[in-house]
Amino acid sequence: MEKQINIPRLRFPEFKDDWGKHNLGEIASFSKGKGISKADIIEGGAIECIRYGELYTIYGETISNVRSRTNIDVSNLVFSEGNDVIIPASGETKIDIATASCVLRKGIALGGDLNIIKTKNNGVFLSYYLNSKKKLKIARLAQGVSVVHLYSSQLSQLELNLPDLPEQQKIATFLTAADDKLQALKKKKALLEQYKKGVMQKLFSQELRFKDENGGDFPEWSNEILGNCLDYKQPTNYLVSSTEYSDNHSIPVVTAGKTFILGYTNETTGIFNTGLPVIIFDDFTTASQFVDFPFKAKSSAMKILTAKLNTSIKFMYEALQMINYEKGAHGRHWISVFAKMEILIPSFDEQIKIASFLSKIDEKINQVAEQIAQTATWKKGLLQKMFI
Asked: Most buried residue among 5, 159, 236, 282 by CB atoms closer than 10 A?
């Protein structure tokens, strides 16, 4: 019988030895954080601190720059020693609680409801490992329903496959560099979005104006009601009948709420497709989306807005982002109210200039968004192949 080789699918070529099998309790010691409620967080406080809820919302596998501060007496705090791996001790769901971060620096106060894992192994390597290959196994260890708990006695039994320290360090450095690239792309996207927002404020306040093709001024903007610029349709004839979506299908199912494309369907009848872009508007949230592809609709609470003659649909979409809506009865913004709202708009030619300019910024944002998606997919693949 051949000996089973305990190595990952993807590996740096200079490393040859098998990875060793251990329980987490064999290579680490456990302790708990202490105190630090939300009320204890003070802007400009003297002591940097981490609360357990921040692991879900703020931090990734490594923590160097700490956001929160407190002025709690140091005698009532527990501090990091560097290379500490922290995992929440309680949370709302089992999968959320299976979240590990390595605190790189000493002297960071670690709040209550945090499991602190100290090890001579590389904490960054361990955090990436726990968050990828071991995430589901950690989730299965957690106990509870409405409030989920994760105890050190459970974590100590977690089975691991570990290489020697030099290989751990190389993997940790490589994955950190991949994350640095991902964060740089996200920052670039945020800056582009911030730039677009500033430009829009100047364009729609008319602080910034374009010239016509002859270098002259465009006519002054005029007041118009939205109903004279846009038509709308109830998407009743275009609703998806099944919510069994699959990435294997090709027709997008859309909504105007927080999630734009819900998924993809194989329903080929009742697809909305005019060949022209439209705006999807949500009666309840006043969210809107610019759509330039055929789709099926999720909800009849959406409205499909199309441009009337001498109106740029892209300009109108951007203009809608600048409107401060007032919700109607039951929190719903009825289309009858929406259609009567006044808006200040330029001539059609200037609308086209503004729309074209903003579309070029959108193209840059979308390019970076695609790079982010590709990098995230690449990283996910690495995590699957570099650990056992």
From this structure: 282
